[in-house]
Amino acid sequence: MTAMFKVGDKVTVKRTHPPGHRRTPFYIRGKAGIVERIAGNFANPEELAYGFDGEPRRRLYRVRFMQTEIWPRYDGPAQDTLDLEVFEHWLEPA
Amino acid sequence: MTDERDARGHHHHHDHDHDAHAPIEVGASEYEIMALAMRELLIEKGYVTAAEIRSALEYMDSRTPSLGAKVIAKAWSDPAYKKRLLENAPAACKEVGVDVTPAHLVVVENTPATHNVIVCTLCSCYPRSLLGLPPDWYKSKAYRSRVVIEPRKVLKEFGTELPGDITLRVHDSNADLRYIVLPLRPKGTEGWGEEKLASIVTRDCLVGVTLPVV
Predict the structure, then answer these.
(1) Radius of gyration over every alpha carbon of chain A, rounded to an integer in angstroms
(2) CA–CA separation, B48 and B40 (whole Å)
(3) Integer Cα distance of B202 and B110 in angstroms
(4) What pTM was computed for the model?
């Protein structure tokens, strides 16, 4: 299966609050960033957490966000960034 | 002040508290008891042996920041190695005899224009194979929450003040990748061998909260 996004694509993290174990921190939900790299396919932690095998594996992206995008009151320089890892099913084209 | 001797002839002054040090061992917490129970069950059911658990603990205890320092010193000394380290960190670590698997290690490079710092906001993910167990502050809620929202203030508390024209990149290892910072080789280390270089690469430099000092 081909990757839904490529390096440099602008993506938005879904703003949704399903119950259960999620690896998408609340602070990044709804925020837009740029795909920094495609990290590969990994066992799905949302399944692994409940004793399942994590299959099918999910594609994991490393996404770079501007700090000022995440925190409207960020008081550091405008060029500062935060990188984190987001699974494909949490991303939408921005 | 009352002053008396006990049976062994020790003086006791009864106008101070007897709390010279914290207790060496306190009762197990609920989680520790649950972990022990789980461990006993796993052994009883034959999933793991006590020896395997002991040997895994021994392996963890053998990991120290000196392994990370060795890798960084080599990267500072050998530009071709540095390139390989940035492209494929697990393979480059293996070259110097450090096995980082199963971690998907990524090396983030400080440059004259960029500084990197790592955190795990969800728990305490850390490049243990290169640095050993994380320090308590790395696992604290204060560090984990503050370094993403006010990283420059946190770095300042570690004594690291970044000029405003430097780009600060925070890396949240919230899923499957693990990060280590490749600091800039400081001025004044010209002509140093790898061993001497490694001596200034500390754990905190590799997390990105400080810079190596000559």
Answers:
(1) 14
(2) 10
(3) 15
(4) 0.87
- Respond yes or no: is residue B120 known to be catalytic: yes
User: What is the extent of the structural domain holding B125?
Assistant: 64-207
- Chosen for mutation from A83, A88, A90 (greatest number of chain B CBs closer than 10 Å) is A83
A46: amino acid identity, one letter:
E
Maximum alpha-carbon separation in chain A: 44
Q: Do B112 and B187 touch, CB atoms closer than 8 A? A: no
Q: Are residues B36 and B106 in the same domain?
A: no
Q: Identify the structural domains of chain A with CATH numbers, from first to last.
A: 10-93 (2.30.30.50)
CB contacts, 8 Å: B172 with chain A = 25, 82-85
Say what the ipTM of the complex is.
0.95
Please state, in angstroms and as integers, the Cα–Cα distance from residue B35 to each residue in A76, B28, B40, B42, following that order. 42, 10, 9, 10
Angle at B143 between CA B126 and CA A41, to 5 degrees: 35
* Amino acid found at B184: L
Residue B26 burial (C-beta neighbours within 10 Å; 0-12, 13-18, 19+): exposed
SS (H, E, C) B89-117: HHHHHHHCCCCCCCCEEEEEECECCEEEE
The residue written with tokens 């990757």 in the block is: A3
Q: Quick one: pLDDT at residue B101?
A: 83
Residue from A42, A82, A87 whose CB has the most chain B CBs within 10 Å, to mutate: A82
Say whether B169 sits in a helix, a strand or coil: strand
Residue B85 to residue B106: CA distance in whole angstroms: 9
Do residue B47 and residue B99 come from a single domain?
no
Kindly state whether residues B162 and B71 are assigned to the same domain. yes
Check if B140 is active-site: no
- Same domain for B53 and B149, yes or no, is no
In the annotation, is B125 catalytic? yes
B94-136 residue pLDDT tens: 999 999 988 899 999 999 999 999 999 998 899 999 999 999 9
- Whether residues B31 and B48 share a domain: the answer is yes
